[in-house]
Amino acid sequence: MILDIDNILEDHSRIAQTIFVKIPILIIRNHLNDDEQSFDIHVNRSHTTYLRDLLLDGCNQFIN
Question: What is the pTM of this model?
């Protein structure tokens, strides 16, 4: 399943809930305009290191 963040979080008061690699997460839009987009990701404390490592590993091709 693909999460279309642009449509789901179109207002600044919206929250999306999904499951990412068997981890339930909340994504909260944290910006008022589209110039600087920012999102908060909330996850259970026991999954934070695992999720952080997954996201960093997936971003390596874009930041190196």
Answer: 0.70
